[in-house]
Amino acid sequence: MDPQDAVKQYVHAWTLTDEADIRSALAGCWADDASYTDPSTDPVVGVEGLTRHILGFAEQFPDATMAPTSGLDAHHGVGRFTWLLSSPTSLVADGVDLGPALPGLDFVEFAEDGRIQRVVGFFG
Q1: How many domains does the chain divide into?
Q2: Are 39 and 19 in contact (CB under 8 A)?
Q3: pTM tops 0.90
Q4: Which of helix, strand or coil describes residue 104?
């Protein structure tokens, strides 16, 4: 799989709210033992782990949307891209009001077949 396409599918999965749809979006781009972590979570592993995490995100921020704000900058099996989480109301996490928009940056490692092997996300 092309890494650009893998990241597009991955980002698309974050826009979904149906468990089967999220799982389907991740199935083609997420390596079987891939991991995801960000400041709000310990690493989650595999399609099932990330599906549950995305469902929790959708439950916590029901009106929020996530959209990339850059293309994928990649080389030698690694890459990065920026994104923006936005909401018509303030985003509140762990009692902290983050305002209506939260920018972020994801670092991505790719498996040899181009699927995503690891994502490490940062907020702000």
Answers
A1: 1
A2: no
A3: yes
A4: strand
